[in-house]
């Protein structure tokens, strides 16, 4: 199979972790007889530095032509303390999501038996956790009208959703639930927000099309609690953009394996795969960042974008092996044991595939 | 001293836990020579049942005339599955906050040494946690214009903040930080929202008036993570209404003592004290609910509304004693040990004051 992949390394440790994901993907391609064409493109702070905007048109064209996008991380400390700077890396991220129509962010949280003791939660609370958030990614308060009035003394952000936007996200949620344990939780704040009431009534109306799926409705504040108390009571959760931003990040730390969590953003024109961790500026260039989340994102890409399940499984299997044998970067190496470099982990995976 | 207190027991277990708080408060008043006048009033589902609205004008007048309000809990399952019912208990809560001008919700999270093993977090993560959220309570997306367009197919909620609203909340935050460790964290989403940028610039401009306070700015998604990872790294946090709703609930479960957490809402006309737990309908009338959060809310009332610090300390001391001696309701009683009834806990506290 010919795989045409746009490669957006981004900022900070992005290039380093992407590098290892490319190595592992190329090794898989060789083993399974595929041919990958990687087309690199700029995004984030490095794009601002090079061409003045964080998501250049050229990058957009490359993404649109590709079969899938593999993405590293964006963000640079020089933009951190001034969220009102006229040009910022995050704008590139939001523009990319919108222009590529990536309306569903798929964020799994699961545990690795060998890493469970890294969790801030007690073992009995986190064990068995295997949940997936579907976060709406191109609507809501992120993209509604925003601005100032009264000489700048009043600010507003409008949160808007249409029934069609809710339906297409919820449809993915129901379909995903059908492939798992047939449990779907719709997270909203329907006791306060009109957009949430639209979410709830839309999902309720879709229940009859998926009679096997058991749907529950929970308020976002209650979910923020239960995620810490009984994360293993959840399976598939669907929610709007801002709630998803907060809850998926909360969910990502409970497993103790944040450095390993992959994600996908799927939608109208293409799909994009990225680690959930950030650009980790302090580690840039040190060859110490954990590449596994990006490598597992590549596995998601093989499976979901190309239907190559065996290839994905082969990657996951060798990652598990590396964890069990302690071939890990310093974030995962127990005190007093050897920590491997980013590139050493990638090399080991390639050698053991 | 004469203390004139409005008593809003509310729904579910509200009346039972309020009853114990009244017993303890009366005992304290007797001991310290104060005279409390309690004026009961209806709110919540019980008010809807009695007079058709969840926050009757009569209740509002009683609250306005009182020196402080002690509040139980509201909410009834018959309204739970239909968040778009025309009249709902929560509307009473929102109306009450708005009409009483209760713009700052004070939500401490702290640990009790004897209960630390109830936390879902590992001991080393939660130990030493002692933080306070100040949540803005009368603005933001809760109270902005909301509605439908396009025959109901588009819903919107407007989030609005003025500089003055941010200033009065932030002022309380700075003042509280000055009485504690002089650390203030402003939680926002300034990389996306215009209202958050107003929050951030307003707080930044106030820094010079409190040169001793160290202020940090963190995005809401990052705080949702760190609250689970390193809750004891926080002290005073200020945030807007919706973020506060989610994060204070998340914070409430990490200590393992949710049934004990008190809260205050302060503002223009009066102040209100309430446990953070809900109306716990399943337990209604069974005399099993934990009254300690309400009793500790009464302690907050003595201290903050009336400046009666010794009285507050006396309540806290006897509550600690009851915990240490295991005079606790079933939610806190370890398996195989005796669980006390709601009223027995209150009686024990009164007897041991
Ligand atoms: C960087 C920021 C704009 C972004 C978001 O809020 O969506 C990030 O937090 C994320 O979740 O991908
Ligand atoms: C019941 C609901 C409207 C309320 C809120 O969202 O403010 C509650 O969750 C709270 O935090 O007091």
Order of strands across the biggest sheet of chain A?
2-1-3-12-11-4-5-10-8-9
Number of DSSP helical runs of chain A? 12
Total E-strand runs of chain A: 12
Helix content of chain A: 40-55%
Oligomeric form: homodimer
Q: Looking at the structure, what is the overall shape of chain A?
A: globular
Spans where pLDDT lies below 50 across 5 or more residues of chain A:
none
Q: Considering residues with a beta carbon less than 8 A from a beta carbon on another chain, report the largest interface and each chain's count.
A: A-B, 62 and 62 residues
**Percent range for β-strand residues of chain A:** 15-25%
Tell me the number of structural domains of chain A. 2
Which class of secondary structure composition applies to the elements of chain A?
A: alpha/beta
Q: Over all CA atoms, what is the radius of gyration of chain A?
A: 20 Å
Describe this structure in words.
2 copies of one chain form a homodimer. Chain A has 353 residues and is an alpha/beta fold. Chain A has 2 domains: 189 residues, Isopropylmalate Dehydrogenase; 145 residues, Isopropylmalate Dehydrogenase. Helix content of chain A is 41%, strand content 21%. Chain A has 12 helices and 12 strands. Chain A has a 10-stranded mixed beta sheet with strand order 2-1-3-12-11-4-5-10-8-9, with helices on both faces. Chain A has a two-stranded antiparallel ribbon with strand order 6-7. In chain A, β6 and β7 form a beta hairpin. In chain A, α6 crosses α7. Chain A is globular. Chain A starts with a strand and ends with a helix. The model of chain A has no long low-confidence stretch (mean pLDDT 96). Chains A and B meet through β6, β7, α7, α8 and α9 of A and β6, β7, α7, α8 and α9 of B. β7 of chain A pairs antiparallel with β7 of chain B, so a sheet runs across the interface. The complex binds 3-isopropylmalic acid (2 copies). One 3-isopropylmalic acid (IPM) sits at the interface of chains A and B. Chains A, B: Its EC number is 1.1.1.85. Chains A, B: Keywords: Amino-acid biosynthesis, Branched-chain amino acid biosynthesis, Cytoplasm, Leucine biosynthesis, Magnesium, Manganese, Metal-binding, NAD, Oxidoreductase.
């Amino acid at each position: 199979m010919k795989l045409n992949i746009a490669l957006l390394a981004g900022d900070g440790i992005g290039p380093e972790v992407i590098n290892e994901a490319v190595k592992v993907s190329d090794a898989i391609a060789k083993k399974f007889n595929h041919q990958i064409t990687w087309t690199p493109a700029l995004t984030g702070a490095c794009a601002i530095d090079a061409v003045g905007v964080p998501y250049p048109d050229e990058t957009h064209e490359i993404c649109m032509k590709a079969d899938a996008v593999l993405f590293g991380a964006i963000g640079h400390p020089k933009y951190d303390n001034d969220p009102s700077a006229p040009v910022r890396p995050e704008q590139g991220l939001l523009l990319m999501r919108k222009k590529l129509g990536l309306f569903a962010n798929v964020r799994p949280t699961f545990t690795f038996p060998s890493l469970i003791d890294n969790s801030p939660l007690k073992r009995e609370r986190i064990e068995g956790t295997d949940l997936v958030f579907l976060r709406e990614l191109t609507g809501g308060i992120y993209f509604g009208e925003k601005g100032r009035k009264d000489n700048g003394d009043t600010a507003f952000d409008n949160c808007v959703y249409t029934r069609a936007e809710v339906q297409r996200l919820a449809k993915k949620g129901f379909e995903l639930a059908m492939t798992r344990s047939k449990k779907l939780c719709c997270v909203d704040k329907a006791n306060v927000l009109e957009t949430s009431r639209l979410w709830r009534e839309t999902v309720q109306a879709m229940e009859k099309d998926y009679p096997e799926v058991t749907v529950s409705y929970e308020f976002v504040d209650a979910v923020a609690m239960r995620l810490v108390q009984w994360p293993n009571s959840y399976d598939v959760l669907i929610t709007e953009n801002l709630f998803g931003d907060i809850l998926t990040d909360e969910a990502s730390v409970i497993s103790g394996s944040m450095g390993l969590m992959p994600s996908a953003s799927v939608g109208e024109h293409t799909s994009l795969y990225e680690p959930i961790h950030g650009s980790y500026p302090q580690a840039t260039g040190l060859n110490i960042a954990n590449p596994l989340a990006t490598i597992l994102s590549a596995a998601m890409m093989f499976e979901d974008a190309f239907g190559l399940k065996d290839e994905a499984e082969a990657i996951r299997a060798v990652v598990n092996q590396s964890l069990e044998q302690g071939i890990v970067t310093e974030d995962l190496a127990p005190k007093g044991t050897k920590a491997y470099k980013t590139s050493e982990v990638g090399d080991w995976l390639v050698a053991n595939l």
